[in-house]
Amino acid sequence: MSDAVTLQGVSKVFGDVYAVRDLDLAIGDGEFFSLLGPSGCGKTTTLRMIAGFEFPTQGSLRLHGVEMALQPPNQRPVNTVFQSYALFPHMTVEENVGFGLRMKKVAGAEIVERVRRALDMVQLTHRATASSKQLSGGQQQRVALARALVNEPEVLLLDEPLGALDLKLRQAMQTELKDLQERVGITFIYVTHDQEEALTMSDRIGVMNEGRLLQVGTPQDIYEQPTSRFVAGFIGEINLLPATIVDHESVRLAGGRLVAATTGAAAGSEVTVAVRPERLSLFGLGETVPARLNAVRGRIVRRVYFGDVFYYDVDTPDGVIEVKEENRPGVALHEIGEEAVVAWDPAATTVVES
Ligand SMILES: Nc1ncnc2c1ncn2[C@@H]1O[C@H](COP(=O)(O)OP(=O)(O)O)[C@@H](O)[C@H]1O
Ligand SMILES: [Mg+2]
């Protein structure tokens, strides 16, 4: 698989702000790649550099192997869909989609054909002659997509395109976007601060914070094997417990010694143990905890019912640990005030730097 986009040592400085710092990234042809991170971490700046709206202060940016860092936007085989997708209200759907081609003086017959194809891709053919004012929010966003797709870009850049939609519609559009991307096979680079959006749609995710790309991987890699405290904490719910390395296969917590792969940090180093609430189980004091499990003893201080699951907060010598237990037959219900053991498979323990 050739790379659609390659960034090497890319930085962007505004005054004394490093918006993006020393970014290395290769995005494959046909990949659905998401840049995920909190507001202000440099996602939009990265996207704007790929689009050509900003030039890197430093570094190389190639599209299908061709250096593009200093090329203007119209010289690049990319298009962008923004969150605010102002359509022309006095135009029909097909006029909106064909507008850019008319400006470029593309031949009339070709415009008709390309608009038809773009509307077909977003499944809006039946609304071609509707006034754009008459469309729902989701349909308007699909017109905005068609307006980008009509240019037949090799790479489509999407900057929080669903941010303005309400939850239900956003979830429906997530599925639609993913289907569309698979159908047309174009490389998508999708910017979002929404972890669920990134997890459900992406082939791979790059997590950014403070201008840096911290980790790149599949949704499973990022969720199951976070390599830093920031990535562990940003995606999903997680317990972060302070620990000290004992040797290459164990750490010490206030509540006892745990089995955990420690990837080479020196004995005595301060680290953080990360474990997801859904990987934990609660055992009553009368129950036998299998010896192969990591175990920490504590007292239940809170229980919240979510229908399909219960959340327990367990106060332990290592702090409050959150446990998520499924509400199904065979899983015992525990009471507030009860002493219990929080236990989990050592394989679910990730050790990250402090
Ligand atoms: N044109 C600009 N001039 C000055 N600072 C900017 C400009 N664009 C972005 N920044 C700064 O760069 C940082 C990253 O911004 P941005 O890329 O928009 O982040 P995100 O899209 O992740 O929210 C922020 O600190 C922001 O204030
Ligand atoms: Mg942004």
How does this structure look, described?
The chain is α+β, with helices and mostly antiparallel strands. It folds into two domains: about 5-230, 3-Layer(aba) Sandwich (Rossmann fold); about 240-354, RNA polymerase II/Efflux pump adaptor protein, barrel-sandwich hybrid domain (OB fold (Dihydrolipoamide Acetyltransferase, E2P)), CATH 2.40.50. About 25% of the residues lie in helices and about 35% in strands. The chain contains eight helices and 20 strands. A six-stranded mixed beta sheet has the order 6-7-8-3-9-10, with helices on both faces. It has a five-stranded antiparallel beta sheet with strand order 13-12-11-14-20. Helix 2 (about 95-105) packs across helix 3, helix 2 (about 95-105) packs parallel to helix 4 (about 135-150) and helix 3 crosses helix 4. The longest helix has 18 residues, at about 165-185. The protein is elongated. The model has no long low-confidence stretch (mean pLDDT about 95). Adenosine-5'-diphosphate binds next to strand 2 and helix 1.
What's the SSE blueprint?
Layout: E1 3-14, E2 17-28, E3 32-36, H1 43-51, E4 58-63, E5 66-67, E6 78-81, H2 93-103, H3 108-121, H4 137-149, E7 155-159, H5 167-184, E8 187-192, H6 195-201, E9 204-209, E10 212-217, H7 219-224, H8 229-234, E11 239-247, E12 250-253, E13 256-259, E14 270-275, E15 281-284, E16 294-305, E17 309-316, E18 319-326, E19 339-344, E20 350-353
Parallel strand pairs: 3-8, 3-9, 6-7, 7-8
Antiparallel strand pairs: 1-2, 1-4, 4-5, 9-10, 11-12, 11-14, 12-13, 14-20, 15-19, 16-17, 16-19, 17-18
The chain binds adenosine-5'-diphosphate and magnesium ion.
